[in-house]
Amino acid sequence: MNGPAVVLFDFGGTLDADGIHWAPRFHTIYRACGGAVEYPAFEVVFRAADRAMESEPGIRTLGFRALIDAQARVLRNLLPDGDVIDVEQIAARFHAEAVAIVVRNRPILERLSGGSRLGIVSNFTGNLEPCLEELELRRYFTVVADSTVVGITKPDPRIFTGVLSKLDASAAQAWMVGDNFEADIRPAGALGMRTCWLTPRERPVPSGGAPTRRIARLPELEGALRFTD
C-alpha cells in the first residue's frame, strides 16, 4: 500500500534512541562510570548544561560527535563530582550507543523516503544540519526545522505548520513521530496530524490525549503507519 504523504520526526530520543531522552541516557552512562549524583539532581544539572550549550563557541557548526563531547565537558563543569569522572569515556559511550541506533534506523528512513516526504521538527541547538550530515541522515529529509534556527520551539504549533507549508501538505496528510508527548504528540495531534509516540512500553499515556499509534522501537513504525482509519 502507499505510505502517508508526509511523515515528520523529532530527532533526539527518536532517531538516535528508542524513546529515551538525552538526560537519562547520559545519567545511566555517568553512573556506570562512577558518578554519584542521583537522577533528579542530575536532570537539573543537565538542563543547566543545555542552557549553557546555547552559548558554546561555534555551536552552530558542531557535528554530532563534537556536540556530545561539548555537552559532556559542560556537564563536568557543573556536576559536583565532575573533577573525578571520565567525561571522555562518557561521551564515547553515549556516541557509540546513539550511532548504533541511527545505523539500525537508516534502512527504515530509506524505505519511507521512497514513498513519503519526510521532515524533522526538533528542539535543537542550531547545528542539527551538520549533525544529520555526519550521521548520514540528511538525504532522507526534504525539510529540517531546528528550533534555534527557525526561532520557534516545540510545542508552539507554528514550527509544525511551517514545515507542513514547506512540504505543501495539510495536517490531515501528515504523521508526527516523536518521543516527547508534550512537545511532539500533543501539539501535532491538536493540529489534526496523526501521531506515533515512540516510548518504552511501560510508560503511561499522559492524561488528556492519546497518540494514534504507539511503538517501542522505530523498526515498528512501518507497521504503525499502515493505520488508515
The CATH class assignment of the largest domain is Alpha Beta
**Quick one: overall form?**
globular
State the helix count: 9
Q: Provide the structure class.
A: alpha/beta
The tally of beta strands, per DSSP, is 6
Any idea of the CATH topology of the largest domain?
Rossmann fold
The value of Rg in angstroms is 17 Å
Description:
This protein has a six-stranded parallel β-sheet with strand order 3-2-1-4-5-6, with helices on both faces. The model has no long low-confidence stretch (mean pLDDT 95). The protein has 229 residues and is of the alpha/beta class. The radius of gyration is 17 Å and the shape is globular. It has two domains: 6-20 and 100-224, Rossmann fold, CATH 3.40.50.1000; 22-97. 45% of the residues lie in helices and 12% in strands. Helix 2 (39-53) crosses helix 3 (64-78) and helix 3 (64-78) packs antiparallel against helix 4.
